Amino acid sequence: MPTRCDQTDPWPLLQAHFTARGRTLDIRDAFAEDADRFAHFCQAAPHVFADLSKNLWDRETETLLLDLARACGLAQHRDAMFAGQAINATEHRAVLHTLLRRPAGLVLPGDVAETPQRLADVHTTLDAMLVYADAVRADDTITDVVNIGIGGSDLGPHMAVLALEASRMPTKRLHFVSNVDGHELHTVLKTLRPESTLFLVASKTFTTTETMTNARSALAWFAAGGGHNVGRHFVALTTNVDAAQALGITTTFGFWDWVGGRYSLWSAIGLPLAISIGSAGFRDLLAGAHAMDEHFRTAPLAQNLPVRLGLLDVWYRNFHGFTTRCIAPYHAALRRLPAYLQQLEMESNGKRVALDGQPLAVATSPVLWGEPGTNGQHAFFQMLHQGTDVIPLEVIAVRQPTHPLPGHHHKLLANALAQAQALMEGQRSDDGHRHFPGNRPSTFLLLESLTPASLGALIALQEHRVFVSGCLWGINSFDQWGVELGKVLARNLEERLESGDVAGLDASTAGLLARLRSM
Ligand code: F6P
Known about the structure:
Blueprint: H1 10-20, H2 27-33, H3 37-41, E1 42-45, E2 48-51, H4 59-72, H5 74-83, H6 115-138, E3 144-148, H7 155-163, E4 173-177, H8 182-189, E5 197-202, H9 209-224, H10 230-233, E6 234-238, H11 241-246, E7 251-254, H12 271-298, H13 305-320, E8 324-330, H14 337-349, E9 367-370, H15 381-386, E10 393-400, H16 408-425, E11 442-449, H17 452-473, H18 484-499, H19 507-518
Parallel strand pairs: 3-4, 3-5, 5-6, 6-7, 8-9, 8-10, 10-11
Antiparallel strand pairs: 1-2, 2-11
Helix pairs in contact: 1-4, 4-13, 6-12, 7-12, 7-14, 12-17, 13-17, 14-17, 18-19
The protein binds 6-O-phosphono-beta-D-fructofuranose (F6P).
């Protein structure tokens, strides 16, 4: 079990460093004092180049943060995850999304006894799923594929299908239905015909209300429209094959309880992406993620990009007290990335107790939010430049475009650079309205091109940086008990909406429920 960061020896040293220097560090001065600052704070990792130099830290800060990581036992906790130990302590489960992208037969030091069989099962399922994906691609009678799933069973595949639009098979339309709001499913269904549609019902548990409700409605629509052969038109992607079969869905691709929902893109949950980009593209995605896994697993902590990003996250959250991070992908195809990262970070690290169940003395997950650049510039970047809060910006840029239109891409990249530059440099003016204080931090992540491999690496990078901060905070990043209470209450209120019974409810809920019924 990792040691909580605030219970280690480096913690008070970091506090003293923050008071003495960190709080007032000016990035512009730091560049003037350190001619090699850019080179030092650049980090090449598989498929991703990072510039961390425009952040509110210096070499001493990073040295102390690395000491903190060592004192917390980060490397040991990381190795325990890769080895398959049950680090998801509240659910007594291993955390092995990395196994989903591990090449067949690869043995890692310390692998638990179950690993060879698990890895063989991963590849058997992957091979079958990719054969199926290619068969769907070759089947001209299927024109529309509808993924029904929510949370990790939606955000990953949806984000990735959009991101890899340039590699999408043009004759297949992909649709994603997640919300229990019937408007969403209805809007999709009215464009479809049963005989040319394939439904993928994606749910790790196969109990999630939204997904079960949408799946039942899709089955009813299929039957009402004269559809027959559910086995051909409905597929379940789940760890709960029995529940899928109970619903009448007999074609299934499975995965395992040691794959967290928000870490499941690499499993059968990735089937919509595999259909969209093909089996070779999906294998490239896995290879890119595996390359980042190997970087995280083997690079020294000081040259380890997920580690450096995770340490910076802790520095900002616990010392500077920044409460949010803004994500700005400078690539329109990455438009669902902020939503995907919200679940990854906030469901993983939005916790208030340590692994031992005791309340934490330090803050955890920041709020993540964002929009693609340049759109965000014309909406909320005003606040980044001149608002009262300092909000670290994470720019994600791609050097090579996949479109042929001249002129656009240089403008896009110039804007990405300009925003980071303006945040740091600021601009003096005697007119307060026109004054930019500057010294506002940003991180710049650069991909050569947006391919399955680079997307895989980028996502694995984000998974691992969340692991790093979660480890230092001493929390379980792999459970999500906080979403359960609302689900239970919704079931109760659904019955009360039918019956009108408001006995025992608080006055506000009772009043709203009565009003909803009277309307
Ligand atoms: O409610 C949160 C959650 O449990 C997420 O963790 C998960 O990704 C999502 O619901 C969907 O769960 P399932 O894949 O089991 O339907």
